[in-house]
């Protein structure tokens, strides 16, 4: 069966979902023209944050919550600042290289972090990440100290397009985000992704069956951190500057809120979380001093009634939703291919 | 031809001597029973053999090779697989997915190909599926293949645990209480399957408390108490042994009559 034929069959079999995704894609393309100027920047930040939360969730599938994730974003940002601003590398080359740099930093961190589990990993990863941030603050050369680096250039693709403007940059960020999400989604659905998940479910059993748990956990950590680095590149080239204060605990806290609010069980959970909270903050903007109170209250209420995050909403509403709409929202019923295996007696 | 040899194996937890100096030899193709009261060191022994705990003293030889310091996944690679008393499953996956993932060792699809499969990777994945269904049929739970493992009845969960262990294509398996909590019918069926496992060429070492099951299935039995081996021999020899009776029942009832 040729690849093309297989792809067509896939699209037809999932036509409803493909239809919705196409509509979403169209919406995302016209969206920047529908909103006010400054809100395009909000959208750009949302795209960057989506990469951050999904790459964070990738690491959590092995059961480890990395508090070094935001510093990894910073790693990518600093890497691209040094490569493009300092060494004159073009943007398209610096993007993957900076992602690799963040992955390499994560790999280096993995040695001391390897033996830690659960809460110990939580704290140790925070310490490692913060140590990195303090490096940037401490060393004026080459990181620019607490003032950071301000020589990050506007991305250019051989002169085509002006990426100093918000809307062109939005499309650049959209392209990068879609690419990253595709790769991470593919990883999640592959055997590798399932191996990560069984390590979370029952690590001892996995080890007794020959799975090298440490290797796979480090792999998840490195890959997730690499994608965080890519998000950092997009961030740096929008703000044309990198400052260590951006990557402190405040940002990590927001990351945790997004992820807990949306849920980590499914791939789309964190995306829903960050998108919903960003939208909420924008809607509440006119209310000025009431924002923190309302924002916090909504989060608390959601976590009381939906402790598994927004992604569990379809599951919870099952008694009231018709079966047809449920099959669209609920992805646990995603065909895995195992249903086609012969049943005994047939 | 001994497949597993323990020489002077021991483990201390601080002052507590969990396992003293155990010498044990299991012949290839045997079904060996390991019995002893609760707390006698049986599960610790399993952990020591399979690398989950590092021994305080002694060595473990598997197929003539020293595996004492190997980590658990390396021990499994050598062909020695164990099950767990309570949680031998991936609870949130279906029964079929459990066995498919348990066959990880022998799936032989490289990391890159897992992400971007070619025809050969797809063939290998299909072969793993076939093998998994075959194992489920062997253990008699094929009709449950699409159910979530955590929702199965206890008996079926135990059967799945054994199927998972078999998916790793071991030369020898260590079964930790394979019929724990089963009724007599399920127990008899499971012990029959364990005999069939041995007939497939896999050596079995099992820990069990159900005396009837142990006596009727095992070729030889080793009894431990307080981390020491106190008896070893055929089922008749062991149950007639005075120390064994005292360890289990205080010497008042004959273990043979259970």
Plain-language structure description:
The complex is a heterodimer of chains A (346) and B (258). Chain A is mainly α and 346 residues long. Chain A has two domains: 36-247, no CATH class; 248-316, no CATH class. Helix content of chain A is 71%, strand content 0%. Chain A has 16 helices and no strands. Chain A has helices spanning 3-13, 15-34, 37-60, 69-86, 91-113, 118-138, 140-143, 166-189, 191-201, 203-208, 213-239, 249-262, 269-284, 291-305, 313-316, 323-329. In chain A, helix 2 packs antiparallel against helix 8 (166-189), helix 4 crosses helix 11 and helix 9 (191-201) packs across helix 11 (213-239). Residues 331-335 and 339-346 of chain A have low confidence and may be disordered. Chain B is α/β, with parallel strands linked by helices and 258 residues long. Chain B has two domains: 1-79 and 170-258, 3-Layer(aba) Sandwich (Rossmann fold), CATH 3.40.50.300; 89-168, no CATH class. In chain B, 38% of the residues lie in helices and 24% in strands. Chain B contains ten helices and ten strands. In chain B, the strands form two sheets. In chain B, strands 6-7-8-3-9-10 form a six-stranded mixed sheet, sandwiched between helices. In chain B, strands 2-1-4-5 form a four-stranded antiparallel sheet, with helices on one face. In chain B, helix 3 (95-102) runs parallel beside helix 6 (154-167) and helix 5 crosses helix 6 (154-167). Chain B is globular, with a radius of gyration of 19 Å. The chains are: A mainly alpha (346), B alpha/beta (258). Chains A and B meet through helix 9 and helix 10 of A and helix 2, helix 3, helix 4, helix 5 and helix 6 of B.
């Amino acid at each position: 069966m040729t690849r093309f034929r297989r792809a067509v069959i896939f699209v037809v079999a999932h036509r409803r979902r493909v239809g919705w995704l196409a509509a979403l894609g169209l919406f995302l393309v016209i969206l920047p023209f529908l909103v006010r100027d400054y809100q395009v920047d909000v959208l750009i930040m949302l795209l960057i944050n989506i990469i951050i939360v999904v790459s964070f969730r990738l690491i959590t599938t092995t059961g480890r919550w990395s508090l070094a994730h935001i510093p990894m974003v910073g790693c990518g940002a600093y890497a691209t600042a040094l490569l493009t601003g300092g060494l004159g590398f073009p943007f398209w080359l610096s993007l993957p290289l900076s992602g690799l740099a963040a992955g390499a930093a994560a790999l280096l961190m993995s040695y001391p972090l390897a033996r830690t589990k659960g809460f110990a990993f939580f704290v140790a990863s925070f310490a490692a990440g913060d140590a990195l941030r303090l490096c940037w603050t401490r060393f004026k050369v080459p990181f620019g100290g607490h003032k950071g680096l301000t020589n990050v250039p506007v991305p250019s693709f051989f002169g085509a397009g002006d990426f100093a403007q918000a809307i062109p940059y939005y499309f650049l960020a959209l392209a990068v985000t879609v690419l990253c999400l595709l790769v991470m989604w593919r990883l999640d659905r592959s055997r590798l992704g399932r191996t990560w998940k069984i390590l979370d479910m029952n690590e001892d059993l996995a080890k007794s069956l020959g799975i090298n748990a440490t290797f796979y956990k480090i792999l998840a950590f490195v890959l997730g951190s690499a994608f965080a680095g890519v998000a950092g590149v997009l961030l740096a080239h929008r703000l044309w500057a990198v400052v260590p204060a951006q990557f402190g605990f405040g940002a990590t806290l927001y990351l945790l809120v997004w992820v807990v609010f949306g849920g980590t069980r499914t791939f789309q959970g964190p995306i829903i979380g960050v998108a919903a909270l960003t939208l909420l903050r924008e809607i509440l903007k006119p209310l000025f001093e009431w924002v923190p109170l309302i924002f916090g209250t909504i989060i608390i209420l959601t976590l009381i009634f939906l402790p598994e995050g927004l992604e569990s909403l379809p599951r919870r509403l099952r008694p009231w939703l018709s079966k047809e709409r449920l099959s669209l929202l609920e992805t646990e019923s995603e065909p895995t291919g195992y249903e086609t295996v012969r049943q005994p007696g047939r | 031809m001994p497949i597993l040899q323990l020489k002077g194996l021991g483990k201390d937890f601080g002052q507590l001597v969990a396992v003293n100096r155990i010498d044990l030899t299991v012949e290839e193709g045997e079904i060996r029973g390991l019995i002893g009261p609760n707390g006698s060191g049986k599960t610790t022994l399993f952990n020591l053999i399979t690398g989950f705990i590092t021994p305080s003293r002694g060595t473990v030889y598997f197929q003539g090779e020293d595996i004492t310091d190997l980590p658990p996944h390396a021990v499994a690679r050598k062909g020695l697989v164990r099950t767990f008393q309570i949680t031998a499953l991936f609870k949130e996956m279906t029964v079929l997915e459990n066995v498919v993932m348990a066959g990880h060792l022998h799936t032989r699809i490289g990391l890159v190909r897992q992400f971007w499969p070619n025809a050969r990777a797809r063939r290998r994945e299909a072969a793993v599926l076939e093998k998994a269904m075959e194992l489920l049929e062997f253990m008699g739970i094929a009709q449950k293949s699409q159910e979530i493992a955590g929702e199965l009845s206890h008996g079926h969960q135990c059967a799945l645990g054994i199927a998972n262990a078999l998916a790793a294509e071991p030369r020898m398996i260590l079964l930790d209480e394979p019929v724990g909590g089963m009724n007599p019918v399920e127990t008899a069926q499971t012990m029959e399957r364990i005999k069939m496992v041995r007939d497939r060429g896999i050596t079995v070492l099992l820990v069990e408390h159900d005396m009837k099951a142990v006596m009727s299935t095992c070729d030889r039995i080793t009894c431990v108490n307080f981390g020491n081996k106190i008896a070893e021999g055929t089922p008749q020899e062991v149950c007639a042994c005075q120390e064994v009776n005292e360890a289990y029942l205080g010497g008042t009832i004959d273990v043979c009559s259970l």
